[in-house]
Amino acid sequence: MTDDQIPRADVLLRGGPIRTMGETAPEARALAAVDGTIVAVDDEAEALRDEHTHVIELDGRAAIPGINDAHLHAAWLGARWPRLFFGEGADSQHDGPLARTEDDRRRALLKAWNLLAELGITSYTEPGIGPGEDDGETGCFGSDMLETYLQLHREREQKSRVTLLRLFGTLDGTSDLEDVLAGIHSPVPATDERWLQIPGVKIFGDGIPPMRTAWLRTPYVDGSSGAPLPQGPSGPAEALCAMIRAAHARGLQVAVHATGDRTIDALTTAIERAGGAPENRPHCAVHADLALGDLPARMRDAGIAAAIQPVIARETRTWAATTLGAGRAKDAWPLARLLEAGTVTTITSDAPITTPDWRIALDAGAEMIGDEIPDARSRLLDCVTRAPAIQDGAADWKGSLEVGKVLDVCVLDDDPVASRKAFTDLTVEMTITDGRVVFDRATRRSVPASRT
Ligand SMILES: [Zn+2]
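Above: the input record for the complex with zinc ion. Below: its predicted structure, written as tokens.
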């Protein structure tokens, strides 16, 4: 390459182990980026440095791809913070209105983005914002919040890349087939998809096992089996399937809140019959508590990702045993089975249900898989980097640190693969999004957002 083909590096990241999460070269020593995109690795990267290059010295600290939380309610998290439903700071008090005005909504998102930057999170999926929640009590999920997202996106205030799923029913509640079909056919706002993509819909398929509202193939200990939440003229099961079919046929990503095996089965069957998800855009079973038996392999083959929350599993497994029976509760949240099957599997927080701190979720995930999975630490990191990029339909430009992908990085004080420390004992030192430092612990500041 000649000088005019490869410009000098804007950013050079060097001086420590870089876990690329790439398939061909899992480790690197240096990365050079131009306009936020990695253009060279190792010696070639060093060679692109000149006096204008912003050199980020790792000083022995480790770099991994920026964390991507595939299921995180950022607007609600920002409005509610520091109150969470489980774990430290737990407060499951009724919310009431949290975001009434445009100012409240802006504050909530900006607060969430700062918080996520401090945790090394550079991407997330906001799972469910739209007209279905226009009368919702918190004000965090309605069309107004979508407008605020769009406004801040236009103002280039984001520090994290967002995948936003539209919601045409109520959160954790019912939805009407006619409303959802109309929503599916309504236009999607134009955005810069690398920062705010709106690829699909969230459908609440069922509830949760401890409340006996997850829809099951084999009944609960009390003999009931739960039921789907969608409503339509031919009954809930047909309404759920009709929503999935319509969204898929429209080319939208379908994310179904599916905890019960019967709901996951319904989603999988509908997608199987439709010929599978598009190659580069899997659909998603959110929670997938009871993705047991034949389901992990069928999900893999149909192109359905599983978004698992290990902290919810840890906090509710004993409770779930009272309704599911001890045996099934023990098998629930089958993280190891999903990883073994090769299903696209993400580890997510569902914040503010649990903490957005992915390190706590990975430690809970490590407990769940024990020594069943080889290379467990890398596999767990994959669930918060590469796998969610696949779920985002963005694996060709984010999720690993390779030439042609964006320089989204989480810098840790120690190597998360080689070190035997709990993930929770690692410190997030710095966060880089699109080649720009958005958080630096050394200066104890969240760097102002506005992108150029
Ligand atoms: Zn959720």
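Notes for the reader.
The two ends are 28 Å apart (CA to CA).
The longest helix spans residues 102-118.
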